[in-house]
Amino acid sequence: MLQNNRLENLIVSIGGGHGAGCYETSLHLKESILKMFPNSRIRVLNLDDMKDASTLNYDFTDYDFKSLHRELLKQPTEGDTTGKMKEPICINILCGGYALYDKEIRDASKLKVYLDSDADKRLINLIQTQNITQPKDLSVLLTEYLHHLREESLKYIEPTRVYADLIIPCKNESLASAILLDGINKAVEEMKTPLSLGDQETHNPLTKKTSLLNFEAERIDVQKGRYYDLA
Predict the structure, then answer these.
(1) What is the distance between the alpha carbons of residues 191 and 27, in angstroms, rounded to a whole number?
(2) Secondary structure of the chain in HEC code, one letter for each residue
(3) Strands 111-116, 8-16: parallel, antiparallel or unpaired by DSSP?
(4) pLDDT for position 60
(5) What's the pLDDT tens digit per position in 119-155?
(6) How many CB atoms lie within 10 A of CB 126?
């Protein structure tokens, strides 16, 4: 049983380039989590919904990471839950290109994931997700992609892959969801494990790391960081 019946915040950050399918994967993951923990509270926070499209700089300054960090750590109120929760867990899924960019948010995340994809695949996904059918709209998107999005991805987003615990090919949402669900299940079980008195005094469920997945043989070093590359 978790201590004092408090809702424990578990943060999962899912990053990837424009059109990598971060939001779609997050929604798929949410559905899977609800099947495993039907009484948990799950929020999907999409970074693409947190920027002002009229004043884009196409870099990290488009986001208020300080406010986002506070929102992720905020304890849910009773009104945020439905019914009496058997699993007092609040799972926040942060998704978007800059999900792995901010250090404070990375440190608070129990699991950090990067969805990998080549540029052509991401462009096709962008066209499909925006339901573009008119030549004029396609021209606008291609101009934005060539002049802004591609450079932004190369300069700011792709470098964050070195911070990921897992790198997963974006072409299979079901595979990504299954792998992530296994890691989340382990994290939740760790949170539910009773602590000794001494451990309780120093325990911080937001930053304590868990051993995720049984892929130790595939672990490799990248720029002094450690992550799993499943691509």
Answers:
(1) 23
(2) CCHHHCCEEEEEEEEECCCCCHHHHHHHHHHHHHHHCCCCEEEEEEHHHHCCHHHCCCCHHHCCHHHHHHHHHCCCCHHHCCCCCCCCEEEEEEECCCCCCCHHHHHHCCEEEEEECCHHHHHHHHHHHCCCCCHHHHHHHHHHHHHHHHHHHHHHHHHHHHHCCEEEECCCHHHHHHHHHHHHHHHHHHHHCCCCHHHHHHCCCCCCCCCCCCCHHHEEEECCEEEEECC
(3) parallel
(4) 93
(5) 667 777 777 777 777 888 888 778 878 888 888 999 9
(6) 19
CA angle at residue 204 from 102 to 34, to 5 degrees? 75
- For 24, the token pair is 């779609």
pLDDT (tens digit per residue) in 57-67: 889 999 999 99
Domain at 3-229, CATH homologous superfamily: P-loop containing nucleotide triphosphate hydrolases (3.40.50.300)
What are the CA-CA distances from residue 30 to residues 50, 97, 141, 199, 217 (Å)?
A: 20, 19, 29, 31, 29
- Domain-by-domain residue ranges, the chain? 3-229
Tokens of residue 89, six digits: 């867990």
